[in-house]
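Researcher: Please generate the 3D structure of the following complex. Treat every line as part of one assembly.
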Amino acid sequence: MNENIISHEELAMTAPTIKISARNVDVHYDKTHAIRGVSAEIPSNSVTAFIGPSGCGKSTFLRCLNRMNDTIKNCQVSGDIMLDGEDIYDPKVDPVQLRAKVGMVFQKPNPFPKSIYDNVAYGPRIHGLARDKSDLDGIVEQALRRAAIWGEVKDRLSAPGTGLSGGQQQRVCIARAIATAPEVLLMDEPCSALDPIATAQIEELIDELRQNYSVVIVTHSMHQAARISQKTAFFHMGTLVEFGDTKTVFTNPRDPQTESYITGRIG
Amino acid sequence: MIEPNPHKSLFVASAQTKQRATAEKRFHMLGLTAIFIALSMLAILMTTIVAKGSGAFQQSFITLDVALLEAKLDKKGTRNPDNLKKVTTFGYAPLIKAAMEQIVVARGIETDLTSKDMAAIVSKSAAAQMRDRVLNDPRLIGTTTEFKFLANSWIDGYLKGRVTRETIGKNKNISSAQLDFADRLIELGIIEKSFNIQFILGADASDQRPEDAGIGVAIIGSFAMMCVVLLLALPIGVAASIYLEEFAPENRLTDFIEVNVANLAAVPSIVFGILGLAFFINMMHLPQSAPLVGGLVLTLMTLPTIIISTRAALKAVPPSIRSAALGVGASKMQTTIHHVLPLATPGILTGTILGLAQALGETAPLLLIGMIGYVATNMPETVSQGLLSPNSAMPAQIYEWAKRADPAFYERAWGGIIILLIFLVTMNLIAVRLRRRFERRW
Amino acid sequence: MLTHILILMVLALALLGFWLGKRKAILAATSLHSLPVHYASYVLLMTILPASLTLAIWSLAEAWLLHDQSLTLSTTNNTLAQTDTALKSIVVIIVAVLSLFFAMQKVSPEFRARNVVEKFILAALMVCAALAILTTVGIVVSMVFETAHFLNLHSWKDFFFGLDWSPNFHGDSALSILPLLWGTLYISCVALLVAVPVGLLSAIYLSEYASSRIRSIAKPLLEVLAGIPTIVYGLFALLTFGPFLRDLFGPEGFFAVGWMSDTRSVATAGIVMGIMLIPFISSLSDDIINAVPQSLRDGSFGLGATQSETIKHVLLPAALPGIVGAILLAASRAIGETMIVVLGAGAIARFTGNPLEALTTVTTRIVSQLTGDGDFNSPETLVAFALGLTLFALTLGLNIFALYYVRKYREQYE
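Model: Done. Output below.
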């Protein structure tokens, strides 16, 4: 009961607090049991990586965190997922509001067929975050700066977003997610469609984003997980096998399955 | 500006979220309304067709015992067929009047009608019906024979509720005294409604006898056209698709052909009618109103549809099968004919049936080459007659009926639509069955 | 009749060639290049082709020559025709026999019969494909000539720029396309006003909102609506919908406003045509909306957009070129539609803006001018070809435009 009297500012200063906590999450698609009893606690202001062989459920679990699975028919989620202590699957919760708080970046860069400016302004516009045009301009600029792409696009904000290179597109998509002022950023293999140079830029960006957001990233590259994350979760066959500090997971895994995966024997 | 605000609870919907949720609901309802409108149009259309058309399959008949007097029909008593043929339908008409008088007396019906007015409730086709039967079987002369005559269309309409004493007004064709008379005959069971096979099998009739008109000859006309379309469009369409899909080099000519096919599929059907008139009739001097010409015009119209669906079917055959056949040393032509074509057959047939269904319902081009209803009075007897002698087609017959002034024909037009739709539904069901049965996933 | 027998004889010779060719190939059996059936088909084709070519050329020449002569001396050339037929038969048979003989000579193990036969099949396939071009050419030529003929008889200024359409039999008809075009475009606009919102929203509902069960019921039902022949819609307009409208707006109607005197009107034809176009628009838009990649929907949902916001701000803008193409295709169908307007629109050519009045269209006038009793070479009949050509040009233009849009749209997401 002690932590109740500690203010949020103090919390942010001290040891990482828990942003999202999941307890006994199960996901079914029709007859497939995709996620089995996963429990995990995701800290704020840090990068958490989900690793595991393909089809292990890491992306599915990620999509549970902002209820993106709602858009898939026949997908059933049970268990509790709390964001700041509030159950996000509570019937009173509007997923629209939740997703503004928990933004998402996808595997393939998916800019809308609009201008770069309109892409980034999309979220603030639908959520009514800007009071006027100059306010919106400010939000767009800040989001693009934070996504480290402002310098490259500031002179062609009205050009279509689809005309950029893959890495630039992905950073515009990150800016687009940031512009809705989320608290958590979910990233589903954000670098898998990019070349090594663009990947390095995005990785650098993720490290910076940690200052303001809790970042959860799904990756199939163990090296990437080791480079950028503070916490790592290893999924296998729909279960969460191991979850801990990245260093520990990679150097001294508790579970033999984790060890086999990291050393390249499975996956 | 865009700093996170962790104090906002998820459980409290902001005013804006509520507003957006309402907008969402409104849009959802809008979509639901649209689909509801579309489907209720279908329901209205179908109900109208069935409600207005089913009457055509029922017809009022008057059963009369007619004395076939030798004095009127065969004065010489020789039963010589040539002499019998000399007696025209006018010679038979008095017999009906006599039969009517007979009934009035025998059944004790009170009426002020003259025998001419009484006989008028029988269809004008009655005399011809009697004559045909007598010519077929001269032994009937001198006997009293039971005939089942069509009632005229006004009496038929009266039985079906289309004609009432209020609506006839000053109509010259029917009076309320005749309706009173008909009422008595109905009570006596002499006028009765029963199933009317003539409507499905029979020929069209003149403006004066809507009760006698049938769609049978037009069905034959449509059938003949469909045969032409099938025999021409299927092989040509499949050959063209095989060329375009499997062999055509990528050059301007191929592009040009493809653009042509795509555009022809969207050319208004009436333009094909103009082509048919100018080319097949005015230039090649093929007979007007002939199902052959109709078939040729519909072939040109259906070809793009068949080519497009056949190409889709060929495209759906995976390249691995082609590679496999080429790999064992088959030539490209052998690969296509032995392997690709058989696998694409269900798709090709489905497309062809749908193309035929489209051609079957087409009206506009047929009007221009003269296949309009009034010519459809004779059943063709041979194949070449079926193709070359003037005929109509189901939709053209329906159009012809819709244009006539007598509302009794409208019922027949709707009834014709029911028959046309039955054909179309059957064809579509076959296509669906075919698709389901051979549906294959690679 | 003799031609039939001639054709049968050539066919018999060809079958004989097939059998002989196969026999020779089998007997030669030492490592043939092709299958025996290829040699057989080669001989068959080589027998038929030169003979039928000769027959065709001869018959055409005959028709050409006799057509000129038969007008002047029909009795004297009767004998001439007989000798001609006899000569033709003999020549054709000789050609067939010679080519059969020649083909048999070629049959040997080294001869690449398969390649030759396949080349022939390929040529036949190509001819079939080229028929599409021939049809287009046929359409254009058949209409251009008669249109030129018409413009010789009638002033082009009146046709294109006159304001009156009133054909008569005194030879001073006013035949202007403008009032007809007005009717066509007005009715098409009414049809699109009905079909586009209903069709598009239905497609959106079915592809984005409906459960798979509703979809599996509603989609086939919409296809039924699309499969109904236009004559049915025409009859519905004439006998059901027109009277219904008059019962509402007619002099003795429900509203007793007397706006409508006839059952035929712009609204009668336009609204019924709109119903006909609903499934057309909805199935095209459904394809187009489904082709928008899922990643764009995910992107929008991931930002917290509602479904309707995603549709309005992401899906529809993304699908816009495709939807514009679909609407253009629908417009082209509306302009070329005949039966609904023939039965539902009326026959009065004028410029009226009142949707409850009768108007006439290009297609109805084509039908009435070409099915009337008029002399074929009078401008009143020939004008139908000029109207047809205009209609063809108009719809072709719309189609090319539409296909261009749709193609551009497809390339965007491929």
